[in-house]
Specification:
The protein is α/β, with parallel strands linked by helices and 444 residues long. 47% of the residues lie in helices and 15% in strands. The chain is built from 17 helices and 13 strands.
Length: 444
Amino acid sequence: MQRIDEVMDEVLKRNPAEPEFHQAVREVLETLAPSIEKHPKYQDYALLERLVEPERQIIFRVPWIDDEGKVQVNRGYRVEFNSALGPYKGGLRFHKSVNRNIIKFLGFEQIFKNALTNQGIGGGKGGSDFDPHGKSDNEVMRFCQSFMTELYRHIGDMTDVPAGDIGVGGREIGYLFGQYKRLTNRFEAGVLTGKGLGWGGSLVRTEATGYGTVLFAQSMMHTRSERLEGARVVISGSGNVATYAVEKAQQLGAVPVTISDSSGWVYDPEGIDVELLRQVKEVERGRVSDYANRKKGAVFNTKGNVWQVECDVALPCATQNELNEDDARTLLKNGCKVVSEGANMPCTPGAIELFQESHILYAPGKAANAGGVATSALEMRQNASRAKWSFDRAEHELTMIMEEIHDACLATAEEYGQPGNYVLGANIAGFERVADAMLDHGVI
């Protein structure tokens, strides 16, 4: 469609050397033609041009002092992409790979993911090229305090609500919240999500992204009268998302057999021991090789990757573009029938094309991993009413939201003549909710 091609060309010109951002925008725009043709109003008022341009981009210096007394300097980011549906909402990522390109791609994805939850939240993302691995608790605290000293002026429970992401867990959220409270002299519980349970956090928030990814896979399988029970599942990553994807898969009767990190991957044919995984990764902050050294029958590998293991279900839960076209061919050859993305954009365009051509069940991250931000919105709801829900209630709410996201994607794909195309369904369903609100608000 010429209109979409023109917008994409402009994105490439105005955002040079940002390949992940280009990839994320192209993946969405290329699926929107049926909606734009059906609703000509979406071609007016430079709607698409405004959609791909962040409302605000914040870049700042983060100086901090390490344990040896040396001053270190990192760079901080917050991209407030779209607030048509509510306050900006999206995590903070602390990782050496973070730059403006990565944050923009994540923020753009977040717009549609948040829209799909139907929880009244806009899209944003932030982070820093600071790497917490190998740092002491005091170093992490000093960094977080310096980071928040700049960020605090840009956020608020009705403005922008950050959460965790890669490299930002309960420890980091605690330090960030403490500094925000110190600077503002307010206990504004709703300004951050993923908080500790004793000071405004929500049960199930820790588990939500991994749980939701598995629940979405289950919903897809139900459309073909299939079940997760007895299925062999390969999972990449070993952080929060992967850990709780393992747990939920086991609860539903599946057998998850792999985990990974940047050092290598583990194959555990009897099924991953989630309690040992938690001990190694969350308590000891160790590596997956430590898991393999302590689990009888588990094998640690430094060559190849988890996608070479025979499976029924694949859950990429590590990072962007981790599963390429060759990996997709291997999965399909080995009998994989379901792919549900736990990470953000973990499959390359070539891999996605192969999955769709093979007609297996494939769910993009903006739908399948929306459980985390959905439960963050539930945490905000509890904070606003000073309520504290039980685990069962919070998990029930999460389950209902994931089923509603699945059904919205499925119905939208059918409406536009491509039944079972969860990519098109997710993109158009999220886009139309955001686009309608943007048109209602005028040219801003």
